[in-house]
Amino acid sequence: MKPQPHVDLMVPVVATDHFLGPVHAPVTVVEYGDFECPNCKQAAPAVKLLLERFPQRVRFIYRHFPLETLHPHALRAAEAAECAGEQQRFWPMHDLLFANQDHLTGPDLRRYALRLDLDMARYDAELRDEVYRQRIREHIEGGYRSHLKATPGFFVDGVIVDVSFGLHALFDAVEAGSK
To answer: Where are the alpha helices (DSSP H) in 31-166?
Structure first.
């Protein structure tokens, strides 16, 4: 009997996850992030570099892990990203939220939605009704089940990668996984 590989990621990747890169890439990177977290903002350009350095070899998935006690706007920003995602604009909203991290109030989020040319009646209704709150709570629960304590939290092929000393560890893990 073949031994099972070590896996830290307790919630497997599903079709509803937001991703960049090929669906069948040999390496899957999952990030649990918070749009108001300065470390997540610093990691965002590195993730873009990772995808450029390993084209066709990496699928990148973003999941929400808003640290609400530290970042009072993070949950609402995650909801705004989900609203945009349902209109095929998750990644542009993701980038806007990190680029404007110091401006994540309700009116700010609405301006970003307008900038992305979202259906504003739908956006306003979904945000008001907290349509995606449960999905975000499930991401948070999955992060806790995977033993996350801080953001950003990265997993490469299901194994957590410690990036507390720099994102080079993430690149090294992807390099090792893509061979």
So the answer is: 38-53, 74-85, 90-99, 106-115, 120-128, 133-145
Residue 2 lies in a domain: no
pLDDT tens string 17-71: 999 999 999 999 999 999 999 999 999 999 999 999 999 999 999 999 999 999 9
- In the block, tokens 């990644």 appear at 91
Q: Which residue has the tokens 């995606």?
A: 132
Q: 26 with 56: CB under 8 angstroms?
A: no
Q: Range of 91's domain?
A: 27-177
Kindly report whether the global pTM for this prediction surpasses the value 0.85: yes
Sign of CA dihedral 50, 52, 57, 60: positive
The answer to whether the beta carbons of residues 35 and 152 sit under 8 Å apart is no
In a domain, 8, yes or no: no
Query: CA–CA separation, 49 vs 54, rounded Å?
Result: 8
Where does residue 56 fall: left (phi above 0), alpha (psi -120 to 50 degrees), or beta otherwise?
Answer: left
Question: Are 119 and 89 in contact, with CB atoms under 8 Å apart?
Answer: no
